[in-house]
Design a protein that fits this description.
The radius of gyration is 36 Å and the shape is elongated. Helix 3 (116-131) crosses helix 4 (153-164). It is of the alpha+beta class and 949 residues long. The protein has an 11-stranded mixed sheet with strand order 1-2-4-3-7-8-10-11-12-13-24, sandwiched between helices. Strands 9, 14, 15, 17, 21 and 23 form a 6-stranded antiparallel sheet that branches. A 6-stranded mixed sheet has the order 30-31-32-27-33-34, sandwiched between helices. The relative contact order is 0.07. The protein has 6 domains: 1-31 and 615-640; 36-178 and 309-392, Alpha/Beta hydrolase fold, catalytic domain (Rossmann fold), CATH 3.40.50.1820; 218-298, no CATH class; 428-604, Galactose-binding domain-like (Jelly Rolls); 646-865, 3-Layer(aba) Sandwich (Rossmann fold); 873-932, Alpha-Beta Plaits (2-Layer Sandwich). Residues 652-880 form the ABC transporter domain.
Length: 949
């Protein structure tokens, strides 16, 4: 495809995108229903002797009276956070009431985490306020027809309010918790039987504190910018752009003190009144409970009782109103196990339950328009009998590749009911055989360094992809036990929480730590190439207080299709940076008490979400762009990814290589040379010679203007698979100073996603000459040791070719000598080393071959000895040095005769060496040795012309 054709194609694509944008603009600009709003401060009693007022907004549809819906916001937000949701419901014909919970927005009072006598009482008061409005449909005196919904913190108040106030007729809690003590201090190990619902958790006592998420939300309630001034006016209401920002980047919202599902960022959407102090806007009880957890990592019974008293689990046995429970599949804060428990408890109380798992959550974004419409349909039917009965089905989403409006494009599986509820079908569990011996795991002193699985909102902050985040989990060697299945023969769709039986034992001579045994279990999807993916970045903490112990461990609830040829791996670690772990060092053994992993399977009918028309247009544009990119990539591959069969054993062949830049600068000009196996080749040249540009083209980082580079016969281009056969070292490799050299190497290799057995750690360490020092912390290393560790890192996997840039920079002479030996040992394995350096003497001693560049061009290439002899100088080792010097000076054309001990150096300047030798013998001088004077520095200066005035 020519450049003109590519330009035409790009222009056509721009036109399509602009046209699509115009259609979207026209669609979004259409007139909708007229919605009126009323703002009002509602008195809500007193707190700490001061009046509490709730800042509310009432949304009135065009036709009234109508049923009402209360919409609650998430933690850190305010009524402005849910303005968009409220307007959507008002457009559907509902009267909608939003409010800022006490302690948030403009509402006064202290945060009590949805306490019955505080936030729950406030919600009941708002129901009474709705009963006074003539626009609201009534079921009786002081009894409005009303539903309630909200996300996260707002989802919890939806459940609690429905449990305490029977005037609420329907509810739709979203991504919320059932038991706050289990959400923040989970324990997934039990000796008892686990309920047979898809994502049931052990919910055992004495759990492990989820310090990262808890810290984020406590910080949001402590106050800060926009919170401190009790007389501050509210900021401008949040816009749709603000909401999209929070939804697409929950981590950023959380870091600023906001629940991404509930919305507002402190200081942006409003400033709450009330005092701040050591406890911020929290009540003293909540502050004391958090302080205890944050400082000790353990919860007293008083703290557990407090958390349970503000949890929906305290009232679910009283909820009989129809409930649509929505939970996110990408959620390390409130997992699928929380909605599982809520559904089970409401069903046991006789309530009507519909369960929906969607491809989002605190780590994956808020519900999309389709799911929000489904929630509105739920209220349509249960508040005014409109539409078809949504029933009690169970829906879960299997995430696809395309995304429309920031929401994953998914296929939805629908089952008749949520399996395992009272009177419903049981959950099918399929056994998968795991293999692995008993393994010892160690908890390091202080629990540091720790494994990495998740951070608040990590799924959305990493390239906007929870899937990418799930590939960043790191388990540290010595801290993890792994048990793996054989490759699957067909796809297995995991739909909930798998269970595994583990046996944990102590090590003889080591007492059980005071905090018991804390472990973290997780389920990995391991691809055929060894790439390990942690679905939803989810982990199950467990605490065991007696050893030995045989326990059932409930793994995280996930929705994950494990493809054929993939393996399932269960990993058990001693640390996790998202949790509070014991500081006392200890060792344990972990083994399988039963080698059958029980995997939940929920069959159902399959459907695919149909995006709205303007989303389809956007998808069409994306598909068109993908096709164009694929065509261009295919053309480039046909042109670039070709193989020369005659060169498949040759490490490097560069032919006619050139690189030009705008303005006429030609950094590399017609460069050609060849490198064979076993060579240590030095790339020499003064500054500006084009060495770095050549190396960047070799690594596929920039594209040449002309010519080609072939590595083992494959033409190099950006992302070429053959580049995996090259190991590279760039000066200044970053290492973690508090870890050993060995641990740094293993962490680096783990980040590549390749199996440990392909790393060849021992060989790389041996070749690099690190010895026992590899087990020392890097902060104790000398500069030479750090350089050798960097070389060892480049050698991991034993690449067929090493490309090293200034590997001896900053080293003293003994260290340079050691580095020289490292390079020679690596080349002695039959592999190839390419070194760019400005130290001519070191290249002369370390390299077998040399390429000299000047002003972008090749000026010499060959063996070091041959290049060193290019200046015509010769050296004679004789018995009479002074006499030999006189004889040589007398020869025609011979200059620069120098005596060094028994050696006489002379520039023969074209005089045959045999003639000079004959003259010395004729004069009676005994010549012991004669040959070229091997001084690469002189040859280099001669070649590049720097020795000429």
């Amino acid at each position: 495809m020519s450049k003109n054709q590519l330009r035409w194609l790009a222009s056509a694509l721009v036109a399509v995108i602009v046209a699509a944008g115009a259609l979207i603009w026209v669609n979004s600009g259409s007139d909708g229903p007229v919605i009126k709003t009323e703002d009002r401060m509602v008195p809500a009693g007193e707190s700490q002797g001061r009046p509490v007022q709730l800042d509310t907004t009432l949304y009135l549809p065009e036709q009234t009276p109508a049923p009402a819906v209360l919409v609650a916001h998430g933690f850190g937000g305010s009524k402005e956070s849910v303005d968009g949701d409220a307007r959507e419901l008002a457009a559907r014909g509902f009267v909608v009431l939003t409010w800022s919970a006490r302690g948030f927005g403009r509402s006064t009072g202290q945060i009590a985490l949805n306490a019955p006598d505080a936030e729950v009482a406030d919600t009941s008061l708002l129901v009474t306020e709705l009963a006074k409005r003539p626009e609201v449909q009534k079921d009786g005196d002081n009894d409005p027809r009303v539903g309630i919904t909200g996300g996260s913190y707002g989802g919890a108040i939806s459940l609690l309010a429905a449990g305490y106030d029977k005037r609420i007729d329907a509810l739709a809690p979203v991504i919320t918790y059932n038991d706050l003590s289990q959400a923040l201090i989970p324990n997934s190990a039990t000796a008892a039987q686990v309920p047979n619902t898809p994502s049931a958790n052990a919910f055992a006592d004495q759990g492990v504190f989820k310090r990262s998420w808890a810290g984020v939300f406590f910080a949001a309630g402590m106050g800060g910018a926009g919170f401190a001034n009790p007389n501050a006016e509210a900021a401008e209401p949040g816009t749709d752009n603000d909401e999209q920002l929070d939804a697409q980047n929950p981590a950023a919202a959380a870091a600023a003190g906001s629940d991404p599902q509930g919305g507002g960022m402190p200081g942006r959407r409003g400033a709450p009144t009330g005092e701040t102090g050591p406890c911020g806007r929290f009540t003293a009880q909540i502050c004391a409970a958090y302080t205890e957890l944050a400082t000790t990592g353990r919860a007293s019974q008083q703290t557990i009782d407090l958390l349970k008293s503000v949890s929906p689990s305290s009232v679910t046995s009283r909820i009989t109103q129809p409930a649509m429970i929505v939970q996110g599949e990408q959620d390390t804060l409130f997992g699928l196990d929380q909605s599982d428990a809520t559904a089970r408890q409401i069903a046991q109380a006789g309530g009507k339950v519909k369960v929906v798992w969607y491809a989002g959550g605190h780590d994956g974004g808020r519900p999309g328009s389709s799911l929000r419409s489904e929630i509105a349909d739920w209220f349509d039917f249960h508040l005014r009998g409109k539409g078809s009965d949504p029933g009690t089905s169970f829906e879960y989403a299997v995430q696809g590749a395309l995304r429309a409006q920031g929401t994953p494009n998914v296929r939805t599986i629908t089952a008749p009911t949520y399996p395992g509820l009272t009177g419903g079908s049981q959950t099918e569990r399929r056994p998968v055989t795991l293999n692995g011996p008993q393994q010892m795991v160690v908890n390091p002193p202080g629990g540091n360094p720790g494994s990495i699985t998740s951070m608040p909102g990590l799924g959305s902050v990493v390239a906007g992809s929870s899937r990418l985040a799930s590939q960043l989990a790191i388990d540290l060697p010595g801290q993890v036990a792994r048990f793996s299945s054989e490759p699957l023969t067909s796809q297995l769709l995991i739909s909930g929480a798998s269970t595994v039986r583990l046996r944990v034992e102590g090590v003889p001579g080591q007492p059980l730590p005071a905090d018991g045994v804390v472990l973290f279990a997780k389920l990995f999807d391991v691809g055929p190439t060894g790439t390990r993916t942690l679905p939803a970045s989810a982990v199950s903490p467990l605490r065991i207080t007696q050893l030995p112990a045989d326990v059932t461990v409930t793994l995280p609830g996930i929705v994950r299709p494990i493809e054929a040829e993939h393996r399932i791996e269960v990993a058990v670690t001693t640390t996790d940076q998202a949790y509070a772990v014991p500081s006392q060092p200890a060792a344990f053994t972990v083994s399988l008490a039963d080698n059958a992993l029980q995997v939940p399977i929920v069959p159902g009918t399959r459907s695919t979400q149909t995006p709205p028309m303007f989303a389809l247009i956007g998808i069409g544009v994306v598909i068109g762009l993908a096709v164009i990119v694929a065509i261009i990539a295919a053309i480039r591959r046909r042109r670039a990814d070709d193989v020369d069969p005659s060169l498949t054993d040759v490490p490097l062949v560069i032919e006619g290589l050139a690189k030009s830049y705008p303005g006429g600068l030609r950094a590399v000009d017609n460069l050609s040379f060849r490198v064979e196996k076993g060579q240590v080749l030095g790339l020499l040249g003064p500054n500006g010679a084009g060495k770095t540009t050549s190396l960047r083209m070799l690594m596929g980082l920039i594209q040449p203007t002309e010519g080609s580079i072939r590595v083992f016969g494959h033409k190099v281009y950006s992302g070429a698979p053959v580049l995996s056969r090259i190991g590279s070292f760039v000066e200044g490799s970053g290492f973690l100073p508090h870890l050993s050299g060995e641990m740094n190497l293993k962490l680096y290799w783990a980040a590549t996603g390749r199996p440990d057995e392909q790393a060849h750690f021992d060989e790389a360490i041996e070749i690099a000459g690190l010895g026992h020092a590899v087990r020392r912390k890097v902060r104790t290393y000398s500069q030479g040791m750090r350089q050798r560790l960097a070389i060892a890192q480049a050698m991991l996997g034993l690449p067929d070719m090493l490309v090293l840039d200034e590997p001896t920079n900053g080293l003293d002479p003994p260290q340079i000598h050691q580095m020289r030996e490292v390079l020679k040992r690596y080349a002695a394995t039959g592999r190839t080393v390419l070194v760019s350096s400005h130290l001519l003497a070191e290249v002369e001693q370390a390299c077998t071959h040399v390429v000299v560049m000047h002003r972008g061009k090749l000026v010499a290439a060959g063996e070091v000895a041959d290049i060193a002899a290019v200046g015509g100088e010769a050296t004679f080792r004789v018995d009479q040095p002074d006499e030999a010097a006189s004889v040589l000076r007398a020869l025609s054309g011979v200059t620069d005769v120098v005596v060094e001990g028994r050696q006489v150096h002379a520039n023969l300047d074209g005089t045959p060496r045999s003639d000079a030798l004959g003259a010395l013998v004729k004069a009676g001088v005994a010549v012991e040795q004669a040959g070229p004077r091997r001084r690469l520095e002189d040859a280099f200066l001669e070649l590049v012309g720097e020795n000429k005035a």
